[in-house]
Amino acid sequence: MNFNTATMSPILTIAIPTYDRPSAIQKQIRRLLPQLDERVRLVVFDNQSQPPVSSHFTADELEKFTLIRNVANVGADANIARCFEYCDTKWLWTLSDDDFIREDAIEFLLKILNEKSDTVFLNFCKGTSFTTIGFSDLAKEFKSLIVFSSSFTMSSCIYNMKQLQPSLQYYYSSLSSMMGTIIMVLKYLQKNDHAKTEFIGDSLIEHYNDQVGWDYRKYIPRTRLFLEAFYDRKYRKSYNRSLFLGCHLTNYWLISNNRNQNKVSNIDRWRLLWLSLKNQGIFNAIRYSPKTIIRVVLKLLSESILNKKTS
Predict the structure, then answer these.
(1) Do residues 18 and 37 lie in contact, with contact meaning Cβ atoms separated by under 8 Å?
(2) 37: how many CB neighbours lie within 10 A of its CB?
(3) What's residue 212's pLDDT?
(4) Which domains does the chain have, with CATH numbers?
């Protein structure tokens, strides 16, 4: 474990969970190092990569950031959670090893953090800018697929851990949902109705990896955990057209676009569509997202016909 020596207390932790992507982590770190100053702590969580992450850097480079190597491969979800557990600065930026940052990313981010010091959650969602106060405001914005999906996109999110730390338990209890981070934020907002979130129509990333590394066949069934985390009979109708809608639209988008490293079979996509319809409720699907459903069905039908012709 290596610790950077700072002349003043850092305000921002940039935490990168990584596993067996040597070229990506090397490129990302070498983009970050020239941008670091005493306000920023860089921490890398090596989830038992072989060879170790440390072998890809010089001794001089290793002195400039903190490297924590897990004693065992704890899985991707738990490795990301460690970023939150070990954060002891006000702000936390969780950064993917293969979403390569802009050359001015840290300078730009620090300026934003200075201006938004009272905000609990920042999301850099390109093309979308708004501010919300409290839970209900953010829940309304979640009817958008873009807003919902970006709210737990790792490299887009900045957390005010000084305020959010008491709600960290909600993240851990929802870890298997793959959306534990935004559940944590929403649970905090439910208890702190004057808390502010900001969505900023810019990006800290120069290049996102086009390949989806995680498997949406695992993600879609787990979205049920997000729905259950906020299920309330009193607010069920309003949530169906706000808080939950973006979740369902994201599932339909994933099924339609099939952006996996390993393509999902047509049969599995039909099964996932049926599961998504059941989770949303057939009546709610017809009422709130009919055009989306029709597009997904037509896409799957056309691909089924094409597959039969080529087989």
Answers:
(1) no
(2) 12
(3) 56
(4) 12-207 (3.90.550.10), 216-310 (no CATH)
